[in-house]
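Prompt: I keep going back and forth on a fold encoding question. Comparing notes only helps if you start from a blank page. Show me how you would write down a chain together with its backbone fold. Please set it down just below, with no commentary around it:
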Amino acid sequence: MAKTIRLPRITRELVQCQMCGYCIDVCEAHRQTPWESVTPRGKIYYLNQLDKAGFGLVDKIIGRKATISPDFVDAMYKCTGCGNCEEVCHAKIELVKLWEIVRAWLVQEGVAPLPVHKGIAKKIATTGNSFGEPASKRDAWWPADVERAEVPEAILYAGCTGSYRMQHIPAAGATILARAGVKINCLGSEEVCCSSPLLRVGIKDQTMGLAIKTVTKADGIGANDMIMTCSGCYKTISSNIGDYYSKAGQNVYHFTQYVDKLIKEKKLPMNNEFNARVTYHDPCHLGRHSKVYEEPRNVLKKIKGIDFVEMEKNRDHSRCCGAGGGYKSAFNDFAVNIAAERIKDAEDVGADVIATACPFCVLNLKAGAKKAGSKIKVMDISEILLQVTGPKVEAPKEEAKVEAAPAVDAEELAKIKTELEAAKAAADAAQKELADAKAVAEAAKAELEAAKAAADAAQKELADVKADAADAEAAKAEVEDLNSKFKQAEEILAEADAAIEQAEKDVEAAKADAAACKAKAEQFYKDVEALCAEADDVIAAKDKELADKDVAIAEKDKAIAAKDKELADKDVAIAEKDKAIADAKADADQFYKDVEALCAEADDVIAKIEADLAAAKAEAETAKAAAIAAEAAVAAAALEADEFYNEEEDLAIDFDSEEFQWDLTPEGVLRRAAWNKKLRCRRNYGELQIPVAFVKGKVAVYVDVDAPEAKAKLESQGWIVFSYNGLDITDGAKQAVEIRDAVKAQLRKMKKGKKKKK
């Protein structure tokens, strides 16, 4: 005999759906398996067919036994849980929550989860992680050079994937936080799965025990904050576990949120550049589910060298990477196909790197890049920060560049021309000096030749005289006279020789001076030619610069003209708008007049309605009495037909007390009640070892403990001390309210004290 199907409380969601189909286009699972049954609309249609009334009424009336098809179970798990369908749903159905409720119902009915999910649940139950790895290796990723603080400011929660498969991501996170001076530690071998892999596939029976271990251990460490590098862990611990046990006593941050805060507080060193074009992929659990969009982008935009670009599908409309909701573990090929599509989105915007903020996204996107044959690099933001926050890396020195000749202005050019003209005048003067020297040399040469001619004539005349002297004694006196003349001639000749020698020396000196002048003139001409060449280049460059400026001025004039036209158009538009406002004002005045007339008519109508209402009330009282009687009859009939719905059954939570050890002491009950009032407490606090201490509000709580000396000392320090009998504590709610009021009073008192000091 087939089992009667009894749906969970999802009637409202089923009725809300208008079957519009907007969800189909954004469903990544539907792209991989193009069947209507896989889409959100198809799943809701199937659920409606199971029972349109929601609780088996139609099936019972027509005598039909509804059954859950294996195909429907398969379709329910062909979903990444990304929430894109919820984002585009016009009826505002909370579809992510709906799918988790239906999957949990399928598990309760014994037709789910899929075999691979059962295996994961078994591993978590036996080892505390989804990979079945030893708990002793849970914190093997911790960097050797990062100190583990005994009393940390923050707990770094790595999660299963970070601890056992993507260890470099939490390791990078720890190093970065240490560089910012944050005192950190982790839960070590006592860290267990956050239960996200179980909740997403409908397995709820382990969440309470895992939550107890996580919250209790974290509370005992005494940290203020808890930080996750995994987006799934962040969503589960910040939003889900409070529904099963208690919220964490710490401020829960995703790693990117905490780093964004550190950067704004100028605590994180940013020593190096990251020169690449980078885009960001929003993890579904961090983005759409938790609305953390800007912090990761803020971090990337603060890194020097990054050219940040957005993909078309980003933020609340981001494409899923394909790894969530148990989809990758059951349908790995489909998940990798979806990741390959996301890689193409990044390539379309020319990115070198696709950065994200979740180890599971990094794992699947890398598989997608490999399948797509893409060279794009997939990185977690922590990996990028690890590079830029490290010791400064000196850039390689560039070879010295030849500096271009500086531009020469008109004044400097005129100065060069003046120097050039002066150089030409000096060259002309040197040429004139050379010509004068040549003329002096020619005159000296002519005098030398005349002296030689006179000496030759005197020698010839002496020879004639000597010949005649032998024949005529009478000519003796004349010879002596000639001898005297000869001596005079010899003296003249000696003087002429000296003059010639001096003239030759003068000529040689003149030649040397002339050669020096010529060399100087030739070098000067070369220098002048070089200057002229440089001047020509400068003039050419200046001419080009002036031409470019003329072009720029022309373009600017064109832009100014366009701007003038735009302003003129705006003036016309403003004038038209002013006219429209005036017309609208006139219409409004008329409208108010019409409204006043309508109000007068409405007063008359209201008076009539009030009279009718009085009569209707009397009739309603009669109808109400009849309805109460009918409701009692229906309830009795439902009880007789065994169709009464037990709310307690739906709210019940299975719990194996042997597997999970609750802290059921009065003190433990009181602490949980306080946590649910949003009060953070510490155990065995301070030198007095206060059993339960609400430190900020200076409230101490003792249960079944008599410590008069400690109480007296605490009260002298401004503490309020409560002592409770454990037998009086049932659910702790009464005591939690009393403690909360005392904490608030203490905080107000402290605030007033600070104001008085100022």
Q: What stands out?
A: The chain has 26 helices and twelve strands.
